[in-house]
């Protein structure tokens, strides 16, 4: 999508600096009077660009040049070529009803067999790979389309096609330092981990590559390339035209600020370390030449921080600072002496574009290469194969064995958390006291205590296994920080280490876990890695899955350490027969929130812990006191909530958006309960929900969790006049109000829904004392998929003294809860759903995002949205039917049939137990029909 300042509102050029010598990279004719603001520009032939690519990465193919951020240790080339032509994202005309078939409701997941469910998942993926097809809703005729893209003058576009002389940034130093491994590892054992992902153009995904152990790298390589290529194409379409408001914010640190409208909704998604290209633009004022000219000079800047609310990005660009010093001396002297006018708007104009930081994908490809080599080392039953492609044979021929000195282990474990239920204790016992030849999977819906189970498992492993060293990961830094916060009450900084990339901002880390981090004070207080000796002392190392690459680059993997141990022992004791076998340093890899990351992302920590060991058949038990001889892999998450973010349709069709947890659950070993003995099943499913009222659980139990949720929450009671029956604390309020946008569809808000939200909050607070316990403002949470809606609601709540109400996006609420949750869907017009789908936004055609939103509430859930749009969504439609069946809907009349589809056992139990027989016979018939159909399909 292209953003631009309207050409009809171009701000006049700032006055020239009277203390600076005139400068023209090509040719200027400048007035001598300082007060004369006109600048005349006469274009001339560009001088040859001095190209010095000595520090350019030779491992990057020319196809990717000027599209991706250089790897650490390399810089961008001096010659900045033309941007690639790419089609802009255009909002299409609404689809006519007779041109599109209506969305068909899929059979209930909860009623299907495993094979049926797998086929339904495949059909859903194929459907999601296409643009959402939803009938347009009647709306107002505005005449001119106010949402149409703004016009961009051709002269501005022509500047992007020129070759510019780029002033590149210095290379980023590799982290960890290249000499880190030399401090402990024998030189000839140091392995190179250079990725080959960008060494050639993207490969076609049309040719089918089987997904098995022997083609593991061949399968993932083109898929990762397709994702990077798609991101590059999207970034090339995002251009800030004729930017005149670049501001200097810190003169001594060479930092600038820039407003990026789409940043509010992560489009473009800019993270620390990304690069920005700024092509200098000159605006002509004489009326006889082109309105804009390029100077042939471009600058490079690196993103150091971002403020999403303001849409503001902070940039580091010493080359731009040097340019100001050389050619705007007066401004430079002024800025060096005072900070009173910081931020300072510069008298410069740019076309600004963005590069993709492909480094995470390169790290994934390098890890996939490592694991592919480990799979094909010649061992018939090697551990890596059993982790990535476990089979029923693996668990029957090599059953899990005891590794503790106890015959009744569960009774002997001294629980740190005394409120665990039997499901959680059984899962922890299986992880702590058994050695599994395959991954052990822990799944569970929201509110079932998955992270609580992981925390207790970590503490029990450390207690029972004195030699254990755990690598504890999560897909994101916030999720990893949560694990550290929960473990810090039991583990000291000498036992647990929080590993961060050196580029992470220190102020983004909670202060309470800073004692668990390592900071290099000599490198401007950046995160660092401790010495090898110190690192090996920690019992638990926590990091994000991508940051686990720091351990791989430092050669602190099990394979590298075991090879070093074998080399040293065999050299010192050459006559020992047999030579003592090396033991893995990392004994456990535990990944929490394992449904949120892609499989190649998880390959990074797996490549750290996987060891070159062969799994031998040992029988069901090796006897008391058996030692752990191989690392263990434990994955924990909810595959029905937010998953990996994938931009490429091709990569999505190739299932890059499927996590390793979900893929393993679909394999016969985990999906077929009758195939393995129950006692040896390498999985645990937590069903007891300790968060929500049973009525709140009814739709998600049927829609997403195979009708297995069991309510166990002990919450308070809501009393609110907005509910027809306080025993049914769910309300859907229909609102047919059109949405509005900020900065060319960068983010959206809906004033009509905001008013309904505010009315609901006021009503709840007015009746707060009738609740048990009394309701507080901090007990209310509001979820909206768009940040503009979030910010506007926050402002209005503050104006009314309700600043304690917690407002956030769906992603902000992942893993959180509150007594009352209000969901504002925002979207009214179906014409924008395709744009939402491309950007991964909204609550329509996004079942996992919807599932997160409707499972955060403990005592009351209120949903506000356009009912005409809701009833056309395959997942919101049965939710509306649930509301109509139970008189929980308020709003415009709906022409929607109420049937027995997606009736959960909880809802059937409600009808049977709580109505006292006074129920409509037709409703009883619908419920019974739904129950019978469900049982027949389940059988």
From TrEMBL:
One Pfam family this sequence matches: AAA_11
- Which spans does this entry mark as compositional bias, Basic and acidic residues? 120-133
Where would I find the DNA2/NAM7 helicase-like C-terminal domain in this sequence? 660-867
Write down the CDD domains for this protein, in alphabetical order.
DEXXQc_Helz-like (cd18038), SF1_C_Upf1 (cd18808)
Q: Does the keyword Hydrolase apply?
A: yes
Q: What parts of the sequence cross the membrane?
A: none
Q: Which PANTHER family match?
A: DNA2/NAM7 HELICASE FAMILY, HELICASE MOV-10
Its recorded name reads: P-loop containing nucleoside triphosphate hydrolase protein
- The organism named in the record is Macrolepiota fuliginosa MF-IS2
């Amino acid at each position: 999508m292209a953003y631009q300042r309207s050409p009809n509102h171009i701000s006049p050029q700032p006055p020239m600096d009277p203390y600076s010598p005139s400068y023209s990279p090509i040719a200027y004719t400048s007035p001598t009077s300082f007060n004369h603001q006109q600048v005349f520009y006469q274009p001339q032939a560009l001088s040859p660009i001095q190209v010095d690519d000595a520090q350019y990465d030779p491992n990057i193919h020319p196809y990717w040049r000027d599209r991706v951020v250089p790897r650490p240790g390399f810089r961008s080339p001096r010659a900045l070529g033309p941007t690639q032509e790419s089609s802009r994202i255009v909002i299409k005309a609404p689809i006519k009803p007779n041109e599109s078939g209506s969305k068909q409701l899929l059979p209930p997941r909860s009623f299907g067999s495993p094979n049926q469910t797998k086929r339904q998942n495949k059909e859903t993926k194929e459907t999601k790979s296409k643009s959402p097809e939803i009938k347009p809703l009647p709306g107002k005729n505005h005449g001119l389309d106010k949402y149409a893209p703004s016009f961009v003058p051709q002269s501005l576009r022509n500047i992007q096609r020129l070759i510019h002389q780029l002033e590149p940034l210095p290379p980023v130093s590799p982290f960890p330092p290249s000499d880190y491994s030399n401090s402990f590892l024998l030189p000839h054992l140091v392995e190179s981990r250079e990725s080959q992902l960008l060494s050639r153009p993207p490969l076609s995904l049309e040719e089918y590559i089987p997904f098995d152990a022997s083609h593991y790298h061949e399968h993932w390589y083109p898929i990762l390339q397709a994702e990077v290529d798609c991101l590059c194409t999207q970034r090339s379409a995002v251009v800030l035209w004729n930017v005149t408001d670049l501001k200097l914010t810190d003169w001594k640190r060479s930092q600038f600020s820039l407003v990026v409208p789409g940043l509010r909704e992560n489009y473009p998604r800019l993270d620390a370390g990304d690069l920005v290209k700024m092509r200098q633009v000159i605006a002509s004022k004489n009326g006889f030449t082109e309105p804009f000219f390029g100077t042939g000079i471009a600058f490079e800047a690196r993103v150091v921080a971002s403020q999403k609310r303001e849409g503001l990005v902070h940039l580091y660009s010493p080359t731009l600072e040097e340019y100001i010093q050389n050619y705007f001396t007066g401004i430079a002297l002024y800025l060096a002496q005072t900070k009173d006018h910081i931020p300072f708007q510069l008298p410069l104009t740019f076309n600004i574009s963005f590069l993709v930081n492909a480094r995470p994908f390169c790290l994934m490809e390098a890890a996939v290469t490592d694991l592919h080599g480990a799979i094909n080392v010649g061992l018939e039953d090697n551990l890596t194969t059993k982790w990535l492609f476990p089979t029923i044979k693996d668990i029957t021929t090599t059953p899990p064995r005891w590794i503790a000195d106890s015959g009744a282990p569960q009774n002997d474990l001294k629980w740190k958390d005394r409120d665990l239920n039997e499901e959680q204790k059984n899962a922890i016992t299986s992880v702590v006291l058994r050695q599994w030849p395959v991954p052990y999977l822990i799944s569970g819906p929201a509110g079932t205590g998955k992270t609580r189970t992981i925390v207790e498992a970590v503490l029990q492993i450390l207690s029972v296994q004195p030699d254990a060293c755990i690598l504890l990961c999560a897909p994101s830094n916030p999720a990893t920080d949560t694990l550290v916060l929960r473990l810090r009450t039991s583990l000291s900084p000498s036992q647990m280490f929080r590993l961060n990339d050196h580029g992470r901002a220190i102020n983004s880390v909670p202060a309470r876990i800073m004692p668990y981090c390592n900071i290099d004070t000599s490198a401007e207080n950046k995160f660092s890695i401790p010495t090898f000796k110190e690192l090996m002392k920690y019992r638990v190392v926590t990091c994000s899955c991508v940051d686990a690459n720091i351990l791989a680059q430092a050669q602190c993997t099990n394979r590298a350490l075991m090879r070093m141990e074998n080399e040293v022992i065999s050299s010192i004791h050459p006559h020992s027969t047999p030579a003592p076998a090396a033991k893995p340093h990392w004994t456990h890899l535990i990944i929490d929130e394992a449904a949120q990351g892609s499989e190649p992302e998880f390959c990074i920590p797996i490549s750290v812990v996987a060891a070159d060991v062969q799994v031998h058949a040992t029988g069901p038990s090796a006897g008391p006191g058996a030692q752990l001889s191989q690392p263990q892999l434990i994955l924990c998450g909810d595959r029905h909530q937010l998953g990996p973010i994938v931009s490429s349709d091709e990569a999505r069709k190739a299932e890059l958006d499927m996590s390793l947890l979900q893929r393993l659950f679909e394999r016969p070993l985990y999906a077929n309960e009758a195939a393995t003995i129950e006692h040896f099943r390498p999985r645990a499913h937590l069903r007891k929900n300790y968060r929500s009222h049973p009525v709140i659980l009814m739709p998600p139990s049927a829609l997403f969790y195979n009708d297995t949720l069991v309510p166990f929450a002990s919450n308070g009671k809501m009393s609110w006049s907005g509910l027809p029956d306080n025993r049914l604390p769910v309300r859907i309020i229909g609102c047919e109000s059109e949405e509005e946008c900020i900065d060319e569809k960068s983010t959206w808000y809906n004033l009509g829904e905001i008013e309904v939200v505010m009315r609901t909050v006021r009503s709840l607070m007015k009746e707060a004392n009738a609740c048990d316990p009394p309701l507080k403002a901090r007990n209310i949470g509001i979820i909206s998929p768009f940040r503009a809606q979030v910010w506007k609601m926050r402002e209005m709540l503050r104006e009314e003294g309700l600043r304690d109400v917690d407002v956030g996006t769906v992603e902000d609420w992942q893993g959180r809860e509150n007594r009352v949750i209000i969901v504002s869907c925002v979207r009214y017009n179906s014409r924008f759903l395709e744009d939402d789908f491309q950007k991964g936004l909204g609550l329509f055609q996004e079942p996992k995002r919807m599932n997160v939103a409707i499972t955060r509430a403990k005592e009351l859930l209120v949903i506000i949205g356009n009912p005409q749009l809701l009833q056309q969504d395959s997942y919101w439609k049965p939710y509306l039917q649930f509301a109509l069946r139970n008189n929980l809907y308020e709003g415009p009349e709906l022409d929607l049939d109420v049937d027995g589809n997606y009736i959960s056992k909880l809802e059937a139990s409600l009808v049977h137990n709580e109505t006292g027989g006074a129920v409509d016979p037709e409703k009883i018939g619908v419920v019974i029909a739904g129950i019978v159909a469900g049982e027949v399909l389940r059988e």
